[in-house]
Amino acid sequence: MDLSRIRDEPHEHDSLTFAIIGCAIEVHKAIGPGLKESVYENCLRREFAKRSFVYRCQPSVTVSYDGQTVGRSFRPDFIVGEAVVVELKAASAISPIHQSQVLSYMRASKLELGLIINLNVEILVRGVKRLILTKSE
């Protein structure tokens, strides 16, 4: 699968991404900004479990090159529903390097949909970035 472009349009897993964001909003309302990523990760894990989400936390993602496994160094914060890569941040802003990181996770895991959720903001929706990769034309 050649994943090379980012697009901002509807995707078949949008209802799942909205539910994931809903979980993050619940966490953010309860504990607010200013904490470490690991705290948010633990809270989000509890929210996912309460809603019976199927997810993996800190899964090892295999990296292949030229048909060979070359590493297992990628560890996104979550893969939810075997469809969405979720990366949490507790930063002043989402930077281009954060976006590149999630795009790499998406390519390595062969998933088209990703969310970057920065919980270090006053209003959570301002800290959410959705990424979709498509096959190049």
Account of the protein in words:
This protein is α+β, with helices and mostly antiparallel strands and 137 residues long. It contains three helices and eight strands; from the N terminus they run βααβββββαββ. It has helices spanning 14-31, 37-50, 96-109, and strands at 3-7, 55-57, 61-65, 68-74, 78-80, 84-89, 113-118, 128-135. The protein has a six-stranded mixed beta sheet with strand order 1-8-7-6-5-2, sandwiched between helices. Strands 3-4 form a two-stranded antiparallel sheet.
* Percentage of residues in helical conformation: 25-40%
Q: Radius of gyration, Cα only, in angstroms?
A: 15 Å
Query: Low-confidence spans: pLDDT under 50, at least 5 residues?
Result: 1-7
Shape: globular
The total of helices stands at: 3
Order of helices and strands: EHHEEEEEHEE
- Strand order within the widest beta sheet: 1-8-7-6-5-2
Main sheet record: 6 strands, mixed
Provide a concise account of the structure shown:
By secondary structure, this protein is of the alpha+beta class. It has 3 helices and 8 strands.
Secondary structure topology:
Layout lengths: L2 E5 L6 H18 L5 H14 L4 E3 L3 E5 L2 E7 L3 E3 L3 E6 L6 H14 L3 E6 L9 E8 L2
Parallel strand pairs: 6-7
Antiparallel strand pairs: 1-8, 2-5, 3-4, 5-6, 7-8
